[in-house]
């Protein structure tokens, strides 16, 4: 009986590291949601410029493959269930099956790939972390353009889904590269 009381006390007063990860994962999920509200709609494209890719790259680099992919999957599930978490507060099947659905699927692919590279130590140097984020961004564009190609005319695909977004992608990668060392220090991840 005394051991059970001590175990209960330890659980309440000194929670395990497993329990402490839940608020961290929730915080990164909220980061993705906040980034989705940083949205600029382009008059010539059904795809908006958003902060979502920045959020996905940070989540994956910091949390790694398993946790980063889980956070992005939870984010996508929230949107699929109707919570207004996608670009500009969109949600549901309209967002998932609309012109931007491929980019949303690409977030999951990018989280997996970037998280995998982070787990392999690519977060330790600026060059490697930037390269990992470039690979993740390519995954997002590959999925996004594949799906967008179903909706827009073939000749307009790159002008509506790629070229206008490359400068922003470069800026997001640069911002993430600058922010990540501080996040690693806060998370006590070596770099």
Structure description:
- The chain has 191 residues and is an all-alpha fold.
- The protein has one domain: Arp2/3 complex 21 kDa subunit ARPC3.
- It is 73% helix and 2% strand.
- The protein contains eight helices and two strands.
- It has a two-stranded antiparallel sheet.
- A hairpin with an 8-residue loop joins strand 1 and strand 2.
- Helix 3 crosses helix 5 and helix 5 runs antiparallel to helix 6.
- The chain is globular and about 50 Å long.
- The protein starts with a helix and ends with a helix.
- About 5% of the residues have low confidence.
Oligomer state of the chains in this structure: single chain
Termini Cα gap: 45 Å
What's the overall geometry? globular
Number of helices: 8
The CATH architecture assignment turns out to be: Orthogonal Bundle
Beta-strand residue percentage: under 5%
Structural class: mainly alpha
Domain module count: 1
Q: How are helices and strands ordered from N to C?
A: HHEEHHHHHH
| Major sheet attributes | 2 strands, antiparallel
Write the CATH fold name. Arp2/3 complex 21 kDa subunit ARPC3
């Amino acid at each position: 009986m005394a051991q059970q009381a001590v175990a209960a006390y330890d659980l309440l007063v000194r929670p395990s590291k497993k329990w402490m990860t839940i608020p961290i994962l929730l915080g990164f999920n909220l980061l993705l949601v906040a980034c989705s509200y940083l949205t600029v709609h382009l008059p010539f494209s059904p795809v908006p410029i958003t902060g979502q890719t920045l959020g996905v790259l940070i989540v994956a680099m910091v949390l790694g493959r398993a946790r980063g992919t889980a956070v992005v999957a939870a984010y996508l599930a929230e949107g699929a269930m109707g919570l207004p978490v996608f670009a500009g507060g969109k949600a549901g099947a309209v967002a998932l099956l609309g012109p931007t659905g491929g980019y949303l699927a690409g977030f999951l692919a990018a989280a997996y790939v970037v998280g995998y590279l982070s787990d392999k130590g690519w977060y330790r140097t600026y060059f490697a972390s930037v390269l990992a984020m470039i690979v993740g961004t390519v995954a997002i564009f590959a999925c996004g353009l594949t799906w967008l190609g179903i909706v827009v005319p073939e000749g307009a695909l790159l002008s509506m889904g790629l070229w206008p977004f490359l400068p922003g992608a470069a800026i997001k990668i640069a911002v993430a590269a600058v922010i990540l060392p501080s996040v690693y220090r806060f998370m006590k991840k070596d770099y």
